[in-house]
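--- STAGE predict ---
source: upstream dedup step, 1 unique chain passed
mode: sequence only
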Amino acid sequence: MPIKTIFFDLDGTLLPMDQEAFVKIYTKGLAAHMAPYGYDPAALVQSLWQGTGAMVKNDGSRTNEEVFWEVFSAGVGRDVRADESTFAVFYDTGFHKAREACGFAPETAGVVKDLKTRGCRVVLATNPLFPHMATENRIRWAGLEPEDFDYYTTYENSSFCKPNLAYYQEILDKLGCKAEECAMIGNDVDEDMVAGKLGFKTFLLTPCLLNRSGQDIAQWPHGGFEELKAWLETL
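--- STAGE serialize ---
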């Protein structure tokens, strides 16, 4: 079956990233931004992680956004949605400091835009743990625009997270396509290569490889951008 839709991960794939450094800068910046509004930094960060964990476990009954704010609010002990606009300001301003933990792959834009010119549908399948503003900023850090993708996942439009196969199935259902018509490209063995279980073709991009489970990566086509381009030519 011909491949019509290409899914890309973002962090560590299209956007090179030191994930640990990114998280430290992000959480420290958010805590500092909200401290003047009465948020205890330690409690905020702890609650942020609790909310993130709840999204990862989401069963699809609600959006990730709804799950996150409920758990986050309980953690900090106040109705944080009343301050949602203040959080949004952070993603427009202080969040950009986290770009220091990111690199830049000049091949990224060319690969995505070449697929578009060939008539492929391109999906940004980034783990939907962030609001759309944060995702759109990271897309731009990678040298692309949100409009370069036919669809991209955020916590507003998703009800599951990686590595849950339901995350990928939800996108397939929304786009009306079959897994056998799709390819998934990512740097995370556990979160991205799992799409192969649904029938996706998969490619493991290795410059920022994440392999927490220590699997043998020889089982997947893999390599850098040059190997990726060659692999795409075979589809």
